[in-house]
Amino acid sequence: MNIGVIIPAFNEEQSIGKVVASIPGNVVNEIVVVNNNSTDNTSAEARNAGATVLNETFHGYGAACLNGIQYLQNKNIDIIVFMDGDYSDYPEEINLLVEPIINDQYDFVIGSRILGKREKGALPLQSRAGSIVAGFLIKLFWGQKYTDLGPFRAIRFDDLLKLKMKDKWYGWTVEMQIKAVKKKLRIKEVPVSYRKRIGKSKVTGTIKGTIMASTIILKTIFSELLQD
User: Fold this and answer.
1) Is 0.85 surpassed by the pTM of this model?
2) Which of 3, 158, 196, 224 holds its CA 20 to 30 A away from the CA of 184?
3) CATH no. for residue 130?
């Protein structure tokens, strides 16, 4: 099966080259880094490491992901993998996510940082709390248990397109997880390793970012509930 990787990136020049270089070349057909209004050398570092680089001017995580999806629609891709560009994920663990899909056991596989090994201090309290609250609400409203809203995930491309993803901000991951339940996809969480990111987080690294992300995630959950 052909596998494409989408990596949204905003000012990740110190880490993006490491991320791209760590992705197993014998597993992945194309790596797409979506430069989301970076003011540093993110694009050049990603390109030098061998990635296809796209530019997304709308500043938002979901917008960058949507840009990558649009590009890969013409590339005969079967599975899409999403990961962050800060080197907190372990790209070499990509097989843990794609093999259950390749073996036709699942359609959507999420890498759970909660279930896996974490470097001390890698996952801030606010991130863990956000996953707990979101997981509780999704279980309450839709009956699906999730332990994490982790960005490292894989999904069949045709199923992803059926989800009709819309969020352009921080609600991207939770929107995907809710819509996957609604579409009755076969869902699995697998433990993945997680380390301290290179550089400061644009979300949990600031009070403003944390509040904004939390608000958008809750808004996304209740918007999906109202649509039911």
Assistant:
1) yes
2) 3
3) 3.90.550.10
